[in-house]
């Protein structure tokens, strides 16, 4: 596993991407600022796994780190999501901004 500015990170050009660890050329773990659409909704309501084929493995909220986030966890405006998934799914999540 390597932290990379190539591969996955190269294909994810966005000011909302905070960090990326490339697992393979098409798969990564990414820290991303929450898009507007999911704010105020629960993880279950957003159905991110089914819609974008990504998994939210953690939520950074201020100094707190929520691992694992429960399906009932509501997203807040300044949340940072830690997601694992493919480039296409992460890019589609980014398109919600």
Architecture overview:
The structure is a single chain. The protein is 23% helix and 36% strand. It is built from 4 helices and 6 strands, in the order βαββααβββα. Strands 1-2-3-6-4-5 form a 6-stranded antiparallel β-sheet. The longest helix has 8 residues, at 87-94. Residues 1-7 have low confidence and may be disordered.
Topology:
Elements: E1 2-3, H1 7-11, E2 17-24, E3 27-33, H2 43-46, H3 48-52, E4 54-61, E5 64-66, E6 80-86, H4 87-94
Antiparallel strand pairs: 1-2, 2-3, 3-6, 4-5, 4-6
Determine the N-to-C terminus distance.
29 Å
Mean pLDDT: 85
Which blocks of ≥5 consecutive residues have pLDDT under 50?
A: 1-7
Helix content: 10-25%
Strand order of the largest sheet: 1-2-3-6-4-5
* Total DSSP E strands: 6
Helix segment tally? 4
Helix-strand category: alpha+beta
Helix and strand pattern: EHEEHHEEEH
Main β sheet profile? 6 strands, antiparallel
């Amino acid at each position: 596993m390597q932290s990379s500015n190539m591969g996955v990170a190269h294909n994810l050009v966005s000011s909302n991407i905070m960090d990326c660890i490339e697992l393979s050329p098409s798969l990564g773990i990414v820290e991303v600022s929450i898009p507007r659409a999911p704010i105020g909704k629960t993880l279950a309501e957003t159905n991110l796994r089914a819609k974008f084929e990504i998994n939210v493995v953690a939520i950074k909220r201020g100094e707190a780190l929520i691992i694992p986030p429960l399906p009932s966890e509501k997203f807040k405006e300044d949340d940072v999501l830690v997601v694992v998934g493919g480039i296409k799914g992460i890019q589609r999540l980014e398109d919600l901004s």
